Structures are given as C-alpha cells and as structure tokens.
Amino acid sequence: MAGEPGKALENFDQAMPGNRELGRLLALHNLGRDDAFEARVSRWRTDPDMHPESIARVAAWTGQNNLAFEYMERTVDREGPEIVHVLKTDLYEPIRSDPRWQLFLDRYDTAEEEDLSRIRFNPTLPADVAETLARQ
Prior knowledge:
- The protein is built from seven helices and no strands.
- The protein folds into two domains: 50 residues, no CATH class; 63 residues, no CATH class.
- Helix 1 packs antiparallel against helix 2 and helix 4 packs antiparallel against helix 5.
- The longest helix is centred in the middle third of the chain and has 15 residues.
C-alpha cells in the first residue's frame, strides 16, 4: 500500500484473487472507512473456508493483537510449525512489539533474525569479471 491506501484500494481489483479482499480490507481500515471494513471483515471471519492465517493478518494489521495471536496459533495447529516463516511479513509489523510475538517465535523454535554471519560466499569469478572488479 506504500502509504497510499486510497490508490491501493483502487488497484486491488487487478490483484491476484487471493490477495484482493485482503488488500481491500487493509486499505479500508487505513482509510478509516470503518463501516465498510466491519461489514466485509465480519463476512470474512465467518467464512468456514477462510484460512486462519488470513484472519491473523487482518487482526495484526488492525491492532487486534489477541485475535491475531489466536489465529496465528490456529494457523500453526492447521499447517504445522514450519508455517511460522509466513508470519514474518510486514503485515505482522504492528504486533512485533507485543511480548507475545517473540514468545510465539520461541515456542516454535524460530529465530526472529536468522544469523547469516557464518555463511561464506567466495565465488570463483571469470577472469575478465575479476579483473574489472579489481580496477574499480
């Protein structure tokens, strides 16, 4: 949405089907169009086919931390702990300051930041590329 929920709302019709309604919901919330948001999100939450992670995203984005954590747990129950990597998107940024965020990650043995310092990357470059880089 890049800080422009009005433009985002206009463009979500071209989004992939799975992301359309999620995008609309987030944009409506950010625009303060509470009646439209509540009408849509209540249908979304009662849809038996709705994936719990989708509900967790909306709840996290809109500051409903308790609901977000409830549906994050439901997501793990349904998909297994390996799904936790999906929850590390910007859409969960609003709840990362909640102490339960790190507890949730710790419970499923998932580090907030992966330590990449031990990875060594020393590719063998073609001679002409190495020579060009050496001159720079």
